[in-house]
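Let us work through a complete example step by step.
Step 1: write down the sequence.
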Amino acid sequence: LEAAKSAGVRRVIFASSNHTQHGETMGGCSGVDHGRLGQLGGPGSVKLGDPMWRTGPDSFYGVSKLTGEALGYLYARVQSDFDFVALRIGWCLYDSVDHLKGSNLDDYHRAMWLSRRDFKGFLRHAMSCDLSGEPHRKYLVAYAVSRNRGRLFDLRESTRALGYEPLDGDEVNGSSAAAAPAAPAAAAVAGAAPGPAAAGLGLRKPVSAILIDDDDEPAPVPAGASGSGGCAASSSRATGIAVNWEALAGVARTMRGIYKQGYAFPEWCEQMLRSGELAPLLLEVVCYYREGDSLEEVKVLAEQREPCNIMMRRFYDKERLGNAFGYKVGAYAKSTKDALLPNIAIFCRTPIRQGAKTEFVNVINVIGYAFDSPDQPDYQYFLPMEFGTPKWRELVSRFKVMWRFVFECARRKGLKRIYIADVGGGAFSDGLNFRGPGYAKLKEASLAPVREEYKDEFEVEQLPRIPDFAFLPQNKGILAESLLVNAWDPWSLVGNGNFGDNSLDGFWGRCTAMAVLCWPLTNPYVLQHMVAV
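Step 2: predict the structure and record it as tokens.
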């Protein structure tokens, strides 16, 4: 823990144990004390309560795990060194809850069984769950067991805090069944009702396909998005992904059909999804957000994107968007003149095309604040504005966060060069230039301090013309070690109006696959790779 503190680690995940809490109900591994369990409320009734006093270790091992949890409390809650999540892990040695059926350990196994798929799910959500504010305040103890009928622990508090619902166990499957196997290809479940994963994405429509990554948790695809009655499944063994590429391509095809003619992202993006060629790149995508912002708002903001919004003019069919995906305008509409939704940035490695030539580039899509129309929430929140006022200081602070996404991404990716764009400049800054101090002062006040924070780590230059820069012979050797910046829009998919949009975002969109790489409904991994800065 001291090493984590010294290294500036932001979150520690501690492998605690079920042995911290069942001394009263189980005698080691000899079985369940059903009399005592009945007094506590029966199966599934043992609650976390306050983890600093509701304990019942069954061994010295359990005591050692409680010591680890207590140290985590000290570092996280008392000293505020980092976030700390302790997972009280069940029994994860066997693929089936029935593995020890008939043995003297069957009782214990059913009380504690944890499938491999659920273990991965608990760990991933432990890394990304929101621990800001009450009741957690940087510290969480949670159970990690599958949903078994014979389990001891009440999972409700843990699943609510982590945002993860176990997918396996005989209580889920309706019989004493093994976990869903590592699928060689995706399962497609027609007309399934929205489950916990769909609810977590903010979807309110039925699910027409479940995309399963080996023994991983599923990502939903909205009803009507597949575009055809059946979904052919394929897999990429090189990356370990097994997903329904046809279903993902169907989502992309549905969205392309919602744009007004001439504004959609390139058709070859859909084709690359269908073939599975984008598989390695899907896994590299990362969503950055400000530490302390609502993770749920961040996820909804990433998912509920409009096809195209240029100066608050929507170049798409709102009714078709609503019918296909359950929303008609982007999540940024939830911003008001009194409160704005969080700012996010999304990194991806993407193919970039110019004619018959293809290269690969690292891009971070950064969202500037929009002052190009009085109808923009940012315009209504900030303007009019005078230099040095609280609103000015807030805007400078928000821009610092935005620039910090860029530099932190380059640091984490081990890149040497950053090619900066005037994010929030150009047409976006019209209102700021006329009714505020202007974009030049804003960029100077916000970018310079952030560059100083990362002093001497990177070469920083202005972004040249896209896509030409990627195909100049002298640049071929530096693309892999460079981070290029795109000025994204708060409302739309990456690329915004693409071929009908002459902004930087439009030029990026028409020559890359970023529209599908950076949208959670065509890349289910986006919401699993969340980084707070």
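Step 3: interpret the result. The first helix runs from residue 2 to 6.
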